[in-house]
Design brief:
With 372 residues, the chain is mostly helical. It has 2 domains: 82 residues, no CATH class; 238 residues, MetI-like (MetI-like fold). It has 15 helices and 2 strands. A hairpin with a 2-residue loop joins β1 and β2.
Length: 372
């Protein structure tokens, strides 16, 4: 007599997880309660937002908004569908970051692009002007000059900050005493705010160095003032780049270095033939960070020189913004000139320029990583 065995369908890992989460199918009353919680939370949110839009001064509006957020999150967490439960948990945990990013970056970017095609005065929009703001800004000599100054500043900083950061990293990965103290000391300037840093170095350039060297201050002329900003930026940012290079250098396998020593390679050959090629991804990251940070330089430029400096006969004009970089020029256009629409058009161009250059730099560096 043959024994008939009943074949059972294997349980998938996903179904096992769902069973662990809920202990099987939820009973109907529990599902209805979960739906009620979610709908109640959304209703509280909508009512509180409507009350805010109508200008209501009710004292319950704020607590109602907070309660609506909390109840909605609870409803999402208790959502009856096992299929989407885990995805919703992920959304809950990512929501604070995504919400902040959308509110502070995505929405202002989209609105800013729209405002650049209008005559926006910071409060309201009267007319749509098309590309008039973009045409106007390209005819302004001070804006073109700020692009040139920014380009020079970026070139100097990308080279020098990475060079000094790498040299400091080499120093801080050697076997010397108190290495932790040196690492902390080199990184410390990066913790100082740019405005404070600018005023401190302004005092050094105007008071200390002029008396020590018995000469005029570096901030008087546009060319020397730009180099002064470069010096301050290197002093501030090289320690941060140093830490990234230290991480890359300490990740180089010791076996490769020992093999090179056995083969008779000296220190220079070990550095150029082994360490540098193996930290190529680190070089890409540091170059990207210094490139984007240099383009966005604002606070040190504002505190140290405020963009002042004379430039004679540039595009037929005499300029007084010899050290004004692009970010500061956009700020002055909006605040000093009270021309928000033109300032927004400059900011959109700045965003496009920075995005294109950053993408080109990353792609070029990645290709070099493959060749190395």
């Amino acid at each position: 007599m043959t024994e008939i065995k009943e074949k059972t369908k294997p349980v998938s890992p996903k179904a096992k997880v769902e069973e662990d989460l809920y202990g099987g199918e939820k009973p109907l009353p529990k599902k209805i309660a979960d739906y009620i919680i979610l709908v109640a939370g959304i209703a509280l949110l909508v009512i509180s937002l409507v009350m805010d839009g109508m200008g209501s001064e009710s004292v319950v509006r704020g607590p109602m908004l907070i309660a609506g957020i909390l109840v909605t999150i609870a409803g999402i967490y208790l959502f009856p569908s096992p299929k989407y439960h885990r995805a919703m948990i992920y959304v809950i945990f990512l929501f604070p970051l995504l919400f902040a990013f959308i509110i502070t970056v995505i929405i202002p970017l989209v609105l800013g692009i729209g405002y650049s095609f209008t005559d926006w005065d910071g409060i309201r929009v009267r007319n749509f002007v098309g590309f008039d703001n973009y045409a106007r800004m390209m005819k302004r000599p001070e804006f073109i000059w700020s692009i040139i100054v920014t380009a020079l500043f970026v070139i100097f900083n990308v080279i020098l900050v990475n060079l000094f950061g790498f040299l400091l990293a080499l120093l801080c990965t050697t076997k010397i005493k108190a290495i932790g103290f040196f690492r902390a000391s080199y990184f410390l300037p990066n913790l100082i705010g740019g405005i404070v840093l600018g005023y401190v170095w302004k005092f050094i350039f105007n008071q200390v160095l002029t008396k020590m060297l018995n000469t005029v201050t570096l901030l008087n002329a546009s060319n020397t003032a730009l180099m002064a900003i470069v010096i301050v930026y290197i002093w501030q940012y090289a320690g941060y780049i140093m830490l990234i290079y230290i991480t890359g250098l300490t990740g180089v396998p010791q076996d490769c270095i020992e093999a090179a020593a056995i083969d008779g390679a000296n220190s220079w050959q070990t550095l150029t033939k082994i360490k540098v090629p193996m930290i190529a991804p680190t070089v890409t990251i540091c170059t990207f960070l210094t490139l984007t940070s240099s383009f966005k330089q604002f606070d040190v430029n504002l505190a140290l020189t405020n963009g002042t400096g004379s430039v004679a006969n540039f595009m037929g004009s005499y300029l007084t913004n010899g050290t004004e970089m692009l970010a500061l020029n956009i700020y002055n256009t909006a605040i000093s000139e009270n021309n928000y629409a033109l300032s927004q058009a400059k900011a959109v161009l700045f965003f496009i320029l920075l995005a294109v250059i950053s993408i080109i730099q990353v792609r070029t560096s990645n290709k070099k990583e493959v060749s190395l």
